[in-house]
Design brief:
Length: about 240
């Protein structure tokens, strides 16, 4: 165990059920087909996007890139599983465009732009929302070029998969230290992973304790070693600090 994150601040947000994103001025709370925009200084909601629930079924996570919000979406728990990336304008909260992956790999739970590539997690599940014979052990990290053409793929470490239980990875971002940080669906843990020198399975470097239970997180864009998570039960955005390595 690498240590425990310490809560610094909480912000009530009624949309805080799937994940959180941030930029220098605002926080974004994600709830399936709704995204709330909050002033990060006052905590007041200043914008809202709400989509057709028949189309925007399950937005899992988002991250900001300039003036755009990039979101991973799936049709969970429906089958056959399909996934897409959805873009929004952070100023107007308008939906801008979409890229569909269609069916075949699983449910896209998070996507991160890093080192000139897209890094995407296609989750698989046991039971509801899954497609036999695949289960949560078939969850994939996929590296793609800027046009979403697959470059490489990896399975997750077996001990991390065991921690996921019947679900999978709900959040993920590369850190400034060159490690991949991943959160699950339920466990209050942040897993630190690395690419292997050989083979097709990621390496588990260590684990941090989180004050919240799983779901999508985001690195704070202002303060190093700070991250935002959500408390689904309390519907709050939570800023925490990780121990300094």
């Amino acid at each position: 165990m690498l240590g425990a994150a310490k809560i610094l601040r909480t912000v009530p947000a009624r949309e805080a059920t799937q994940g959180v994103a941030n930029d220098p001025r605002f926080l974004y709370a994600i709830e399936n087909s709704t995204i709330g925009k909050y002033d990060r200084r006052t905590g007041q909601r200043v914008g809202l996007w709400s989509g057709d629930r028949r189309v925007f079924i399950h937005i899992n996570s988002c991250e900001t890139q300039g003036t755009e919000l990039v979101c991973a979406m799936s049709n969970y728990p429906n089958v056959p599983m399909w996934s897409s990336v959805e873009w929004f304008d952070t100023k107007t909260m308008r939906h801008l465009r979409s890229h569909s992956f269609g069916p075949g790999r699983g449910s896209l739970t998070w996507i991160d732009w890093h080192d000139g590539s897209w890094w995407a997690c296609f989750a698989n599940y046991d039971g509801d929302g899954g497609e036999a014979p695949r289960d949560h052990r078939s969850t994939l990290l996929v590296r793609m070029d800027p046009h979403f053409v697959t470059q490489e793929q990896w399975l997750f470490p077996e001990d991390v998969l065991n921690s996921f239980g019947h679900h999978s990875a709900s959040g993920g971002h590369w850190g400034q230290d060159g490690r991949l940080y991943v959160s699950g669906h339920d466990a209050p843990s942040l897993y630190v992973l690395a690419l292997p020198d050989a083979g097709g399975r990621l390496l588990h470097v260590g684990t941090y304790d989180l004050p919240t239970r799983g779901q999508a997180f985001d690195w704070d864009v202002i303060s190093s070693h700070h991250l935002w998570t959500i408390d689904r039960q309390k519907m709050t955005l939570v800023e925490s600090s990780l121990p300094t390595p």
